[in-house]
Amino acid sequence: MKSMAVLILMAAQVTSIRPPRVPDVDEHDMSLQLVQDMKYISERTAETLAVPSCVDDPFGLLGPGGCIWAAAALTCDGSLGPKLPGVSTWMLCPATCGRCFCSDNPLVFSIGGCPRMSVLGCNRVLSDLGVNLTVGDLCPTSCGWCPGSSTPGTTPSPSLRDALLDIYTATNGAGWTRNTGWLSAGDPCAVPWEGVQCENGELVVLRLDSNNLVGTLPDSINQLSALRILDVSSNSLLTGTLPNIGNLTKLEHLIIAECGFHGNLPDLEHLNDVLTNFVFGEIEFPLGYPVLAVIAHVEPVGNSLEGDLDDLAKLRKLEVLNAAYNHLSGTISEEWCSHANIRIFDIINNEGVTGEIPDCFNQSKTLKKLSLSATGLTGTLPESMFAVGSPIEHYEISTVWGLTGTLPSNMGENKVLKTVYFDELRLTGTIPESVCGASNAIYLSFGTMFGLSGTIPEACGDMPSLQVFALYNLQVSGTIPQSFERLTKLTYLYFHDIELSGTLPDIFHSMNDLVGLYLNLNFDLHGTIPASAMNRPKMTTFAASTTGLSGQLPDFISPRMTFLGLANGNLSGTVPDTWCDAPVLDTLWLNANLGLSGTIPQCIGKMEKLGFLRLDNNSFSGSIPAGLVEISGLKDVRLMHNKLSGVPPDFSKLKKLRGVDMSHNPLGVDVNDVLVPASECPELIQLGCSGCGLTGAMLSTSFYISGKSGGGKFPLLQRFLMADNYLTGPLPPSITYSLFLITFFDVSGNNLTGTIPGILKEADGIIAERNPLMRGENGQLPFFITPSRLTKTYGDGTYECAIMQGVATDIIFKVDPSYYDYAHCKCSKTFWGVPPNCKPCIDNAICPGGDAILIPAGYYPSPETNPTHVLQCYDDAVDSNPCNSKNKIPWECDDGYSGRLCGRCESGFYSVGRRCAVCPADSGIIGLMVIIILLCLLILVAIKKWAKQQQLLDLLRLLVFFAQVQAVLLSGSSFLWPVTVKSSLGGPLQYAMVSPSILSCLAGLSWFSFEGSVTSIALVCGFWAVLLAMFLFGGWFMLRTHVLNIRRSRLGGYALQQTSSASLTTPVKFIEADPSAPDYPGILISVCKIAMLGTSFLYLPVTVACLAVFQCETDVSNGKRYMVYAPDTECSSSDHNYDLMYRVSLALIPTVVAGLPISLCIICYILRDPVKRRSVAYKQMFEFLHSMYKDDCYWYFVVAVLRRLLVAVAVSVVPKESKIGLPLLLVFLASFYAHHKAYMPLRVPLMNTLETYSLATMLATYVCGTLFSSNLTDTTFTTVLLSLTLWPYGLLYILLFVDLCAKGAGSTSLSRLMAAHSIFEAPIKFTQRVNEWVNDTTLERVVPFQPPSRRPSGNPQNEKECEMTADIEAP
Question: Which of 405, 789, 986, 1280 has the most CB atoms around its CB within 10 Å?
Fold first, then answer.
């Protein structure tokens, strides 16, 4: 019945597997209520002197010592009632047994009621049992040999003494608990030897049970051939294998339970017809043993014997097989069903036994008890086990997870059924009502079968013999049947965690034998507690914790009540004073009922037996009653979380007090008012007064008695709880002399100072946090503490510190980080700095914890040391960003970049927009310079030799505009281009923008940057502005002074003459020039032209640079403004570079940026008269401006400059990161293209085609930039698309250049050279066909200007005038 003990242990607990229990409920408290049950049973049994000491127990009514069970009868003279109607206990106690005695001490009495070997002699008084009886009174002749006597006239075998001495030596006889006479020289059968019984000079009984045998049994035990009883049970240190017992042919009882034997079972074939009792599992309790009586039974130390279960079936005389807690294997064969004598079949905890339960146990004639728990059986429960005629009275089947199916529907058909214990099975369905038909059943228990549901059968109220009804850990729901009021014999009603609902019915009036009522963990059980439920005359236990019961507490409880548990409920009101009249109440749990209020009854001191009091987590107020300290046996008091106040009573009177906790009550007293009286409790283990408003400093005298050896107080204290008070000062040094056994020390949340004493090194927990003034010596941790790898956050999560652990022990150690000067702390993730001053991580930064702040790629710390902000850097390409792109630690700009936002190119690099490219190597620079010089010489030679109409210069002007706009798209706009595109195209195009940055590579300079670019360009443009002024002034002066005098050599001796009154329609006359007119140097005109052309060439880069100076943005980290195009340059006069750029830009904007367009507009206005445009003076001054355009589009030179201005505005005036900049640029480029297509203004048709394709290429570049920046397409595809637009333009430009050179050369050697070599044949023919196609389809052929001929005529002057007029009007 061992598993029944487990059931009762579970029944006693108030814990639940579902909601959490109330704090501070420990395992010790959980078992107290049933300990009290046992105490009552023991006391009641001691009052019953009606026991047969030597009798068989066929009805399962007797306990150890032959006692009638308290559950069966109360007096020896009374009838056994429903057990055996008409049979009295004296019928079971014949005169041969002598006087009946009642005792439940299994250490004194053994099988059949015979005394164990703890009795010293037949004539000794058993004073330890508290009765005046001798052994002779308990040892009648029917018991056989009595200890201390022998049969006269017998002589033992000479080998008997030697065999016994071998046993004594092999099992450390000197250390036996009982070894009287074992080394005496006398005959073991003549002189009393403890545990030895002889008969006719032969050893027949050897009882050494519970005698501390250590070692192994020797083989010499096989010499005791007459042995009938061998009992060495309950010797856990008796180990090894079992010796050979082949000579023990008379052995009837082999009891080796609860030892440490292992190996195989011995060969018992010679005992097949002898052995009746084989117990090698646990000490067997008699059949019908009351369930609650085994609560104090200790888990046995099992053997580990192996063997086949069916081999034991050959023991034909076997009546008791107790093989529990071993390693048997095999199956249960049907041979056991036909066994002639087996009464007890117990194979508990033999997992090797498998297979199914035979469907034949109902055929057995003798089987009374079947115990199959904790085996490997499978299948279902055979219904035949409960069929009519089945002899089995007791079933114990638990922890057999292989059993499935449902409970047999015929369980009630077995009329001899007395006990059913089913637990931890995979059975489903419901509890069959048929089980209620077992009218003789005294014990029904179904537990831990989560598939078992339904309701409690109403018919079970009609079981007149039922004493124990237990349901636990099931899905059974519903209400308690009203029919249960008819269970008048019920002693225990156990409904634990089964989802009861409804109210608790008033069914207990007739249950006068009710001892225990268990209703724990039924959350839906509500309503009030009936008065009859708690005042049954024999009730010792009422457990209804963690339910929905509410209302007032009943006024009366049973006078025999030892355990009363009503924790975790909804009870209200006060505790009735009448409860003080419970003289034997040992445990009172009323915790966690917030509705309970009022004061604690002052009469509580009348509960003389009270040992455990729990009133915590309620609403009690007032003072702690002084009568509490009058209960001398009080062991544990828990009053936490109430509203109690005032000075606690003098607990020094409670010498057995083991725990007192008054935490979280507003006591408001000095800490020593608690410590001093508590220190006088010698057995105190826990002292709790956290959150009580205690003040003052702990005195040394509270822990140590000065001048007394070993004067430390609190010798057994393990838990010291003084958190959340107002304690001051250091921990007293006297703690070192007292708290030797401390395991948990909590003084957190105070104002303590000093250090943690080393005496606490053995504690499991030291909590001293929230004491900001405590400091370790030199900021060090105690010597027994070291930081672990785990951390805990502090400071609202801003920093984390290592969780401390013991150096050599597992200890919880908590102090403020200030205790060790934050030496083991670091800032948490998303914070940075030095604890405790950790700052939130800056936006866009990465804070991995600690003092480091990581700046991700593409971001810049501002300022670089101790940053307050992290700014996003500008991408320098679609796949590149200069700000720490490689995620280096510490942060740094990429190679070649420096300054704020990494916006400055270092020495050895030149800027391509925002990208810093590596300057070419020395050989590359030299080669590049050579190529540039050769190109310049080639262009100059071509212009000098072949281009009389300046067409090559016009072609160069188109190329420069194209290159500059492309440079703006690739480098100066918001487009993000791949690094490869910028490297291959952006760098060379910087020459078109006259970038000093790339020129610095040639010069080997390092000071060039954006501001250097602006300054240098501004200085160059200033020079060109001076030349432009000279050009304008000189032109104006020459036109005004010498408008009618032009050198004869220029126009064949004729001069243009026009009167002031002439209109545009007046014929223009050519007159002969004055030979004496002053001849101004041609160099002046050349210089003016160069100045004008140079200014026009530099206009776009200068305008972009000047306007960019005024585009600034605010740095959120310091409030300063910085240039967008030069993030390292502050927009302030305090910055020398910016101040210079600002001043230069202010000077250039009116003179160049605005001055050039205005000047050209004025010139255009002057040239609006076609006659003036054709005059020699104007042509000499301004023809180079509009010579490349057709006459009706002469004003297009102004459009060319305005186009540059609009491009500069789109990329410089509009913020670079603005969403309107790029769309505005698209509008401008599209308008340029449309305007050009509408007018086709260039004289040379192929140049018109080139310019059209040039503008289309700009639009295509814009589209490619959009694709790159938005990642809409693959980078490779977009790169190919860009190449397909640029290379045709380059090819077309080269072909046009070759064509112009060929036309200018005429029949020169260059033309012949080109015609002579076939390599030029295809390009020339292609160019000619393109020209012919363009001329035929789009434009009329342009007639070159011819000077007037000097042919003689009748009227020479008129002829000259007409010829000149015709020439002028020619297109």
Answer: 986
